[in-house]
Amino acid sequence: MDISISLPPGIDALQKHEQLFDALITSLAKIEEELGQALSYADDLAQATTRHLLEAGGKRVRPIVAVLSSMLADENVSSGQVSEPSSDIRKAAVSMELTHLATLYHDDVMDEADQRRGVTAAHQQWSNSIAILAGDLIFARASMELTDLGARAVKEHSRTFEKLVMGQLWETMGPKATDDPLDHYLRVIDGKTASLLSTSALLGALLANGTEEIIQTAAAYGANVGMAFQLADDIIDVTSTSETSGKVRGTDLKERVPTLPILLLRQEAADGDQEAKRVLELVDGPLDTEEQVDAAVTAVANHSVIDTAWKMTTQWSDQAIAALNGLIDSPVKTALIEFAQYVVSRDA
Ligand code: GRG
Q1: 3-class SS string, the chain
Q2: Does ligand 1 come within 6 angstroms of the Cβ of 61?
Q3: What pLDDT is stored for residue 16 in this prediction?
């Protein structure tokens, strides 16, 4: 299968742990094959639509987190001479990536996004209905992957899927009058992103026969790294170029999604900051033309709330690292720490 996955640059730091790095890369290559096998359909349209975004690449963050977390439960973890993760662990990783992939199809319909993973969004290439159905097909295969992995794996996945949908529902509905907008936003992120990263880590440790302590440590790490990951994504929406992110800059702004930079601007404007008020006039004004979106995005990107937003985001990455405190030192632990650091230092 011809796939252009772009593993996060943070993974390079692992190369110094040669055996661990080899086990990770070998697993990821097998997972890639298995993703292709999981999305094989006799029907031409099902085949073309479901593989459209799979073959467009992506960073494979959820499989990486699942595989690394599984290694935490390896009896040779302290030496770094870990075994290659089992086929069950890879199945969980495939299921997590497919679940993520399914949500991307639906998300792009809801956001009316033009691009995803550097290619035309599926609903633009086909139609809203076809893109939604493609997401449903992928989700069915994500569930299928779990059937041999035991009741807990199936339960964790179902619970997570509900959280994903609730997160998206809350985002769609917006905060109630009694809700604090920042609390609401963090609850949305916990549901729509952190839950899947947390479950990826949990399943990795569970299927490697980790103790309950290791399983819960992995889940806490995944949840915090997931929060940091989405907060970073939302900042990058206004600071990146489409060339680096594969998406169109300012999508959230255009869709009027109040992400962290905008919520911070509203707080500062309410406190009387004139510059924040000026930027908000652009953000809240018409965003119908490319020029209007560009002016608003640039104004937000140049405001000091971006620094504040990165500082807040780093707190979740620090919490992810702190979750690992109880574990013995090992190259795997170092890799997870480096990955949490990468999440808040990326620009795409
Ligand atoms: C019924 C299947 C179904 C879903 C409905 C739409 C939805 C529920 C949830 C949306 C969840 C969502 C899209 C969250 C955003 C997740 C996110 C951070 C996406 C970007 O992830 P990356 O950067 O993307 O890992 P790549 O392309 O690298 O995989």
Answers
A1: CCCCECCCHHHHHHHHCHHHHHHHHHHHHHHHHHHHHHCCCCCHHHHHHHHHHHCCCECCHHHHHHHHHHHHCCCCHHHCCCCCCCHHHHHHHHHHHHHHHHHHHHHHHHHCCCEECCEECHHHHCCHHHHHHHHHHHHHHHHHCCCCCCHHHHHHHHHHHHHHHHHHHHHHHCCCCCCCHHHHHHHHHHHHHHHHHHHHHHHHHHHCCCCHHHHHHHHHHHHHHHHHHHHHHHHHHHHCCHHHHCCCCCHHHHCCCCCHHHHHHHHHHHCCCHHHHHHHHHHHCCCCCHHHHHHHHHHHHCCCHHHHHHHHHHHHHHHHHHHCCCCCCCHHHHHHHHHHHHHCCCCC
A2: yes
A3: 81
